[in-house]
Every structure is written in C-alpha cells, then in structure tokens.
Amino acid sequence: MENNQAFKELKDQLGWTTAKIANELGVSEDTVSSWLRQSKPNPISEPTWRLFLRIVQEQGGKEE
Questions:
Q1: Alpha-carbon gap, residue 52 to 49, rounded angstroms
Q2: How far, in Å, CA of 28 to CA of 23, rounded?
Q3: By the 8 A CB rule, do 57 and 16 touch?
Q4: Which residues contact 29 (CB under 8 A, 6 or more apart)?
Q5: Residue 61, pLDDT above cutoff 90
C-alpha cells in the first residue's frame, strides 16, 4: 500500500488528472480511482508503479 500513498502524493504534486493517468497507463479511470480510494484502495502493482514513474520522468513531470 505504500506505493498507493506515494502515487496519490505524486499525482497531487504533478496536477495530473485521473483521466490523464489512465490514458498514459492504458487503464480505465475506474482503475486509477481504485488506487486512490481512501477506504480499502486496490494496491497498485509494482510494474505499474514503475511504469508511472518512467512516464512522469519522460514527460518532465508537472502539468502546466
């Protein structure tokens, strides 16, 4: 679950929407939302977490 908290914090810092993340990762918005839920979030897999970090790095991070 530690990746879920880091995911939420990074999403907030970057200003990325759930839709943008879903599009970049090739998953549904519902899937992204399930990782962000306060109560019983679905765990984000390690490969998905690493892919997200790579995409953030390649795109230079924060949305303008």
A1: 5
A2: 8
A3: no
A4: 18, 19, 22
A5: no
Full-model pTM: 0.87
Q: Which CATH number fits the domain that encloses residue 14?
A: 1.10.260
Residue 64 lies in a domain: no
pLDDT in tens, 6-18: 999 999 999 999 9
**Residue 48 belongs to a domain:** yes
How many residues belong to the chain? Answer: 64
In the chain, at which residue ranges do the beta strands (DSSP E only) sit? none
What residue numbers bound the domain in which 18 lies? 2-59
Residue 21 located in a structural domain: yes
* 63 band by pLDDT with thresholds 50, 70 and 90: low
Total number of domains in the chain: 1
DSSP codes, 4-19: HHHHHHHHHHHT--HH
